Fold this sequence. Notes:
By secondary structure, the protein is of the alpha+beta class. It has one domain (about 5-140): Nuclear Transport Factor 2, Chain: A (Roll), CATH 3.10.450.50. About 40% of the residues lie in helices and about 40% in strands. Strands 1, 2, 3, 4, 5, 6 and 7 form a 7-stranded mixed β-sheet that branches. A hairpin with a 5-residue loop joins strand 1 and strand 2. The longest helix is centred in the first third of the chain and has 39 residues, at about 5-40. It is globular.
Amino acid sequence: MSARRLLFLPVLFAAAVPARADDAAAALRAQAAAWDEAIVRKDRAAVENNLHARFFQIDGEGTRHERAEFVASLLDARLQIDPYTVPDLEVRQYGDTALLSGSTRMTGRYDGKPFTSHYRYIDTYVRENGEWRVVAVQITRIAP
């Protein structure tokens, strides 16, 4: 290989890395949006499929909830969540770990009574065997 071609290899490699990172960020955004929709639909299989086996959540009061408790609370028949968006979703990838953070205003009904919740969150995703799964969620309530 000529010296001239060797000079271009770092440029080609550098150009390829952001494309892969952008692809991963786009895939994670789509996966997070699909998960949000599954939560609203109460689609147990889709909700659970996005969760790592060792998943846990830290709620707005600082209480830790394990995977089964988290899923049960989302699928509780008394809870109805309206469709919602995350307008400021940010994805930061660090190898096989990604942090997805944003804020949302959630509305719905619990036991027939309306509720509104405004919070900021961070979801920690890990990639194992080519699949991204949420391993931890932490939320912080935003005061009205």
